[in-house]
Amino acid sequence: MADICQDDAFLLHKQWSGDLSHKFCFIFCYQEDTEAVNSTGFACPEPGCQREFVSANGLERHILKGSHQYVKPAGTDVVKQMWVDKCNNIGSEYKSVIDQSVISGSEDDSVVEGWALKKNRKVVRFSPQIKIFLKNIYDEGERTGKRPYYDDLCDRLRKQRTENGTKMFSPAEWLSVSQIKSLFAGFASKQHSRRDIPHALHVVAPDQVDVNDVELRNVLSEIENWEIQENMSLLTDKILSTELDPFHADTCN
User: Where is the signal peptide (predicted)?
Assistant: First the structure.
């Protein structure tokens, strides 16, 4: 059995045979672990590593070896770090958006004159054929009292065919629901205006007025008297002007 001697806190054989690198590696690891256990002041500069050492030599050996001891961070720490990263990225993203908008705005600085003015509304005229078709549907609804569904009318305009089997209306003549509503409103307003014309033009004759009020009769009599006096005054002025005019008098003689 080989003799064993003690070197500090490490037991070492007096005689070694074979590869000596295993011996030095064993000593190196043992010394590093021993210093880490009794650590008091040399902390590892690697972020997240929790190892500390008594001497600077132990710290150097630990850094060269790279055997860092990381502690899994808590969930709250992870959330805080994510929030910090998010806040830091907001400024850079906002700045990049502003820079892009400035660049895009500087590329096209030409503004068309009158861009803010109200555009002229395009007037769409309905074809006579589609007006007659929808007018017949409107009159039929007025007679029967059944109001048509505008969605069904839109679909009917697209599918309506002639006797030959061809489509009655081209795609350019198809109307939307709002257009059909406005056209039906025009039919209704014209119909109501025609109904109101006879009543508006009805004039009552004076002899059909039943005058039974005494005050009204007095007013009418005063108006008649005033008209008579006015006519008499005009006639008197005319006679007097004729008598005073010498030219007119010589002509009469």
Answer: none
Cβ-in-10-Å burial (0-12, 13-18, 19+) of 72 comes to: exposed
Q: What are phi and psi of 35, to 5 degrees?
A: -70, -35
Full pLDDT tens readout for the chain, 253 residues: 444 444 444 444 444 455 544 444 444 444 545 444 444 578 888 877 888 888 888 888 888 888 887 777 777 888 888 888 888 877 666 666 555 655 555 555 567 787 888 777 666 677 888 888 888 888 888 888 888 788 888 888 888 888 888 888 888 888 888 888 888 888 888 877 666 545 444 444 445 445 455 566 666 777 777 778 777 777 777 776 665 555 444 444 4
Report field, pTM of the whole predicted structure over 0.85: no
Interior CA angle at 93 toward 92 and 98, to 5°? Answer: 100
Q: Give the integer Cα–Cα distance in Å for 139 and 26.
A: 108
